[in-house]
Amino acid sequence: MYIALNSGAVGIRATFERQLELAASNGFRGLYIDIGTVARLGVDKVSAMFKEKGLVPAAWSLPIDLLGERELYEKSLADLPMAADMARQIGCIRTSTYILSFSDTLTWEKNFDLHVKRLTPVAKILAERGCILGLEFLGPKTLREGHKYEFIHTMDEMLKLCRAIGTGNLGLLLDSWHWYTSHGTVGDIERLNDEDVIDVHVNDAPKGIPIDKQIDNVRKMPGETGVIDIVGFLQALDRIHYAGPVMAEPFVEKLGKMRDEEAARLTAESLRKIWSMAKLRL
């Protein structure tokens, strides 16, 4: 596994060219991409820009609203083959999206059936183009409170959805925050294999707050407080031979107020710190 920069997740709003410069100059190995940027600049140019900086394209966000209106969903599904083709051509086969952990209209069973129905054609399109899809479960209990029905919010439930679709190219977007807030354990990760994990996000949680009271967008930089067992998390991923990207997603407001150079530097430092804590090689 390797560290990759997701600019938007740490408040950087630079051009694609500048994002590449920031990633390269701060020791990142990869950069997350916007598939729209590839469409705008072209596959050949984007590939050349990555090569020039010695970086790899890490992953891209699935451009589909799984719970959107049927017409919008079908339009985005029709556009997906072109997006996946472009991603594969630049060597970026990993894509991901999150699954809401609640509904006010659908029972758990009906929600599950809807996700199977809408994700199956998505997964097939991606599989035909050699792409793999990571699904993120949202762990915090506070996200589900006040809603009529709960939905997938643990690792095992998300793996159940992946298996129900059955295309063989689905796995987890595993976020240390959601792993922690879902009461996940190191042993849970050790039960996986490398193909079960598509993408990884890391962060930390504020001190003095019970797990079930943690608020989703109130987080800390990776390794900042030690509330989340990031050493156990990373070492478990290493033991299952996860080989994909790891990005910081801390939702720390101060990053967005910094100069891009400073935000990139602090993000890189936090990732190098947790790598060192876990005694892993970058």
How does this structure look, described?
By secondary structure, this protein is an alpha/beta fold. It has one domain: TIM Barrel (Alpha-Beta Barrel). It is built from twelve helices and ten strands. It has helices spanning 16-25, 35-41, 43-53, 70-89, 108-128, 141-144, 155-165, 176-181, 186-190, 230-239, 253-257, 260-277; strands at 2-5, 30-33, 56-61, 94-98, 102-103, 132-136, 149-150, 170-175, 197-202, 245-248. It has an eight-stranded parallel barrel with strand order 1-2-3-4-6-8-9-10, surrounded by five helices. Helix 10 links the parallel strand 9 (197-202) and strand 10. Helix 2 (35-41) packs across helix 3 (43-53).
Summarize the structure.
The chain has about 280 residues and is an alpha/beta fold. About 45% of the residues lie in helices and about 15% in strands.
Distance between the termini: 8 Å
Which stretches are poorly predicted, pLDDT < 50 over at least 5 residues? none
User: How are the strands of the largest sheet arranged?
Assistant: 1-2-3-4-6-8-9-10
Look at the structure and give the mean pLDDT: 97
**Estimated structural class:** alpha/beta
